[in-house]
Each structure stands twice: as structure tokens, then as C-alpha cells.
Amino acid sequence: MLKFDCKSINKNLESNLRKISLRSAFFGSALLSAVMLFCGCNKKEDCIVSEMHAHKYINESSFDKFIISEKEKQRGWQRQDAFILVNDDIKELIKFENRNGLFRISNNRDKIKEIEDTNTDYIEYEYEYVRVYLVGDIVLSETATAWTRDSNNPDLTGNSRRVHYKYYGYKIIRNEKGNLELVQSEMVDSIDDLPEDFIYIKEDFVSKVYYDSELLKDLSVDNNDYNFRQDENFDSELQSEYEKQLKLIP
Question: How many angstroms separate the CA atoms of 245 and 241, rounded?
């Protein structure tokens, strides 16, 4: 006849249950942390505005945009106190802006000026080099060319070119189906040269074009001064800008 030590069994059972409980709590906590990390959950900031509104957010590159959210951070964007009131039409615009990575030029003049100031023309020089490559087991070589800013490179060909910076802008229209649609501008030498209705840029709004170095000898970057407004919690100017824009989108 088998005999069981009930006290010993109960003690082992309680010990195992405690281990399971601790292990479950640990993994549950780790899982919750992982979910919060990957889904971008974070605390909400206190806000006394009861009407539907959007807050200004700024990223590490100092671009800013408006997002309909109270979260402290949104995928690398830090919430600010500045806000605008939002109706359904403005809400549609803001969501379209964010979906397409658009920044309002009027809100980012300082950053745009900083970028344009650093984008000065420069000269590149063509040089030759030997390119070695394999075709099956056979090693082949050929003379190729590339470009460098080093005017003292010993293998220069004598050709040169001027690198010039151009910029793009964007505007929003409503297409025949009644949906918002993005239109890109022609390239311009400065954001100030954009047509008035192109009021947006993207973070990659800069492009390089290449000219014969004899051209554009006297070209210099136009460093216009910008007028910046003081930031207030209620951004009345941007509010007016959105409302004015809506009138241009039938």
C-alpha cells in the first residue's frame, strides 16, 4: 500500500505555485512594457481646452506641425502647449498633412532659412579611376569617371561642374472625386520663389542640380530675412491660415 506525505506535497505545491505566480507576473510586466514600447503608448499631458483642437509638435530637426493628440510624444515628435481649434474640415486637412509628411512653410521659416543658408553652390571636378570587376572567374578592368570636390586630385580630367541647390513646395487641392490631393511645384532657387498657394514643404524638400561650371558664376544664395511671430498658446495666425486655405479648396 502506497503512503503519501501530505505535508511534503502541500509544501512543494505551494512553493511551485509561488514560482509560477512570480514568473507570470514578471512575464506579464515585460509583455506590457514591450507593448507600450512598440505601440508608442505614453502619458497624456494635462490640457484644459474642452473644444476639439490640435497641438503643435516639434521633432529633433526642429520642424513643427500640428497633431490632434494630447500625448507627450508621437513617434519622435514632442508636444508643445500651442494649439488651434479644429472643426471637421481642419481635422481633415491636418490628417492629410501628417499622412503625407507635410510641414507648413509659415511655421518653419527659421528651419528653412537655416537649410538654405548652408546650401551654397560649390564646384565638383571629374576624375578618372580604374574599376575592377569579375565576370565569372575572369578579372576585368576599365577606366571610369567620378566627381570630387578635391581640385588637387592627380587624376582630374579637366571637366568640372557647379552643384546648385533647388527646392520643392507642395499644395493641397481637392480632385474631381472630392478627395484631397497633393501637388508638387516646379523646382525653385528659394522657397520664397514658390507660388503663393504652395504653402508646404517636406523634410526632403532639397534637390541638387548640376551645371557647367562656366555657368552661374555670379549665382549666390538669396538669404532673405524672415519675420518670425511670437509663439502663443493659442496660435490665432495659423488658425486664420487654415480657415483661409479651406476657402481655396472648394
Answer: 6
Q: Assign 189 to helix, strand or coil.
A: coil
Query: What is the pLDDT, as a whole number, of residue 214?
Result: 57
Sheet strands (E) in the chain: 53-58, 64-67, 73-74, 77-85, 103-104, 122-135, 138-148, 156-167, 170-174, 180-184, 200-201, 206-212
75: DSSP letter: T
Residue the block writes with cell 571629374: 126
Per the structure, how many domains does the chain have? 1
Q: Grid coordinates 580604374 are at which residue? A: 130
Would you say residue 146 lies in a domain? yes
Q: How far out from the chain centre does Cα 162 lie? A: 29
The answer to the question of residue 233 being in a domain is: no
Cell numbers linked to 91: 481635422
Which residues are within 8 A (CB) of 177 and not within 5 positions of it... i.e. 6 or more apart? none
User: Which of 191, 39, 166, 182 has its CA nearest to residue 101?
Assistant: 182
Q: Structural domain of residue 128, as residue ranges?
A: 123-161
Alpha helices in 100-141 (DSSP H): 109-118
Which pTM was predicted?
A: 0.62
Position 11 in a domain:
no
In a domain, 109, yes or no: no
Q: CA-CA distance, 199 to 195, in Å (whole number)?
A: 8
Check residue 76 and give its pLDDT: 78
More confident residue, 134 or 6: 134
Q: Which of 198, 205, 206, 204 is nearest to 182 (CA)?
A: 198
CA 230 to chain centre: 24
3 state SS of 64:
strand
Among residues 164, 139, 160, which one has the least CA distance to residue 150?
160
